[in-house]
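User: Hey, quick favor. My workstation is busy. Could you predict this chain's structure for me?
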Amino acid sequence: MTGSTDSAGRTGSTDSAGRTGSTDSAGRTGSTDSAGRTGITRRDVVRHTAVLGTVTLVGGDSVLARPAGAAAAERPGPDDDPRRPTSPNGWELEEKANDVSTVWTRPVPGTGLDVDVRIGDVETVLVHVVRRFHYEIDELRKGDLAGWRAPARVKLKRAEGNQASGTAVAIRPGSYPSGARGGFFPSQLMVIRDILAECDGVVRWGGDDDRPYEALFSIDVPPGDKRLTDLVAKLRTWADEPGAGPGTRVDVADTKRRKAATALERRQKRTA
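Assistant: No problem, here it is.
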């Protein structure tokens, strides 16, 4: 092991493996191997590169800008421990939002609201669900959305536990409390069924569970599932097409759409 001090007052050492380390005058240390690589974890990437914002489209509409570092929130990294606790849908729990986390406060375009949600693909899907609810079921107001919640504040073995990984959102939880059924009119239920079918089974509604929670919409596939990436690609394509996506006229009574919605309802209720 050798040591040296440069003109700036930094000290360094080189070990037998060719790794060098340095300590500056502020007491910060770092390491670089012989290939010039520095140590950094997936969580460091998320912490330092998550960027919040929206993109304004021609005509004044807006969609979510994909945050830098979102990819790190969607796939496991080499530093991830497979034994880390997960929510019922298989996503890693997060103890915090907006600080060393894959969960950040994100805008819901067209509503004036924000929601704490897992950035990246999960965000794209859940924000789509919220926007369709806002436009087609009932206008949402401040306090109507509950996204991520700390693991200690939810029942982790129930569907609401998905909120602790940032992969579920409760819309008006005070109006549609856990354990109660019948909170929506038939016409509103048709829209909910159409939203679920449009999401190709990637989203599950809490109203279909044995213990209902009609406010809750959760991601229903594990990390890395192709159905999630395919759906996100479709939703992002709609964002670039005039007359497509949330806020456009949808005929939820269309025969083809109703058939798809009914088939998905039966399939998801079987797994309740």
